[in-house]
Amino acid sequence: MFTVTNVGAVSGGEAFLLLTPEKAALLDSGYSFCAPQMLENISRLLGPRELDYVLLTHSHYDHASGSIYCKSRWPGATIVGSRHTEKILSKDSARDLMRRLNDSAARLNGQGQYLDCLKDLRVDRSVAEGDRIDLGSLQLQVLEMPGHTRCSIGFYAEQERLLLGCETLGVLAGPDLVMPCCLVSYNLTLQAIERVAALPLQYLLLPHSGLLEGEDCARFLTNAHYWLEESRRRIRDAAAGGGTEDELLQVFKDIFYTPQTQQVQPEVAFDLNASYIVPLLLKDE
Ligand SMILES: [Zn+2]
C-alpha cells in the first residue's frame, strides 16, 4: 500500500512524496528558492512522522537543490543518489552552476531573496544497479538509466509494479507527445525506454508530470519510443535538406515546446537542452 503526492512548490520544481505505512520518501526535491514551501507541503502530509529518504533521479538543479533543505527539518533523512550524482554534487563548480540556475528560476518566478544552502548539498548514500531501498512493506530496487544524464537512475518496486522514473524516459509534452531528453546518449536512452517497456508496470511516476496508471504507462513508453526515433528522423531529414543549426533547433522546438512543456521549462532552459539534444540526434554513436 502506498500513496504518491506532488508536494512541489512551483511548476517545474516538482517533488513527490511516496508514503508507505512504515516509511516516507521524497522523489526529487525541486529548486532552492521555493524549498520552504515544499517543506510545509511535506509536513502537512507527514504530521509527526519523519522523512526517511530523499531519492534523487539525477543531479540537475531543478531536481536536487531542495534535498539539502529537507535535512534542516528532518536531519535523519538519507539523501540517495547514483555514484555520478554524488560526484557531481561534491564539486564546487557544479554547486555554483546550480546556484546561478536557481537564481534565474527564482527571478522568473518573481521571487527575491532566499536562503541558499547549496554549499551543504551532498548525497548521503550512493547507489548502483540492483541496490535496494527499504520502505517497509514496499521495497525499491535501483535501475541505472543513463541517457538524459550519466547520473540518471530510477527505482522499481516489483511487487507493486511501480516505477519511479527519470527524465531519460522523456517528458510528457502533450497527449501522446513525449519529448526526448537525451543529453548524453541516444542509444542509452533508447535502451532505457525498451528496458522499462518490458517491465510489467501498473504505475509509472514521471518526475515532472506525476503518476500514470494502468494502460497509460505502456502508452507513455510507446510514445517515448516513437518520438525519440521520429524526432531523430525529422532532424536528420532537415539536416539532409541543408537546414542550418538554428533551423534544426526550430524543428525540435516546433514539435516539443508546447504549452505543457512551457509549464515546467522556461524557454532558456528548453533552448539550452535542445542545443545538446539536437546535435546528439545527428550523431552516429
Ligand atoms: Zn534533468
Protein model, in words:
The protein has helices at residues 35-46, 61-64, 67-73, 83-89, 92-108, 186-197, 215-240, 245-256, 259-264, 267-282, and strands spanning 3-6, 16-19, 24-27, 53-55, 78-82, 125-127, 132-135, 138-144, 153-157, 162-164, 171-174, 177-179, 203-206, 210-213. By secondary structure, it is an alpha/beta fold. It has one domain (3-228): Ribonuclease Z/Hydroxyacylglutathione hydrolase-like (Metallo-beta-lactamase, Chain A, 4-Layer Sandwich). It has a six-stranded mixed sheet with strand order 1-2-3-4-5-6. The protein has a six-stranded mixed sheet with strand order 7-8-9-10-13-14. Strands 11-12 form a two-stranded antiparallel ribbon. The model has no long low-confidence stretch (mean pLDDT 96). It binds zinc ion (ZN). The site of zinc ion (ZN) has 4 residues, from loops. Zinc ion binds at residues 58, 60, 148, 167.
